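Workshop exercise sheet. Pairs work together: one partner reads the sequence aloud, the other fills in the structure field after running the prediction. Swap roles for the next sheet.
Pair: D.N. / O.F.
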Amino acid sequence: MTITLVPHDPGWADLYERTAGEIHGVLGSSALRIDHVGSTSVPGIVAKPVIDVRVLVERYDPEAVYTAALSSLGFAYDHRDEGHVLFKGTRERTRFNVHVVQKNEPDANAMVVFRDYLRTHPDEARRYEELKVGLAERHRGGDAYASAKSSYVAEVLSLAGASTGG
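Structure field:
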């Protein structure tokens, strides 16, 4: 699978907002918070044209509650790991990853912290963009691309924790 990076599209924010409203509509108060995360949520940097959505929940058991609700919007269950349940789908010709994350998971807020740090530190956002472009050129497979970014993400999360006293 080839990694395709595209210039930031300001329309991603509006598409996220509409989709988040629909997700909230089917999950109701089960969704404690819904956030636009990932590179499409950071204005000005290139991104894979996939909108990542983090849905924070009290508990994701029983999983069937989220599966049925998100399925009604066209999001299919993909997998579950220690940190979250992932659903994938397409809205208005744009791919989405919906990450259902339990609030007491150790990394429940990592995606939001990472996004916020890049949004408020433009030099760091550019550094991340340069890393992504280089990795996309070197790694054709999605898993290798994602794995190669993990040490950088950990570094930024450490910086973000230091800058917030966390």
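Discussion prompt: The chain has a mean pLDDT of 89. What would you look at next?
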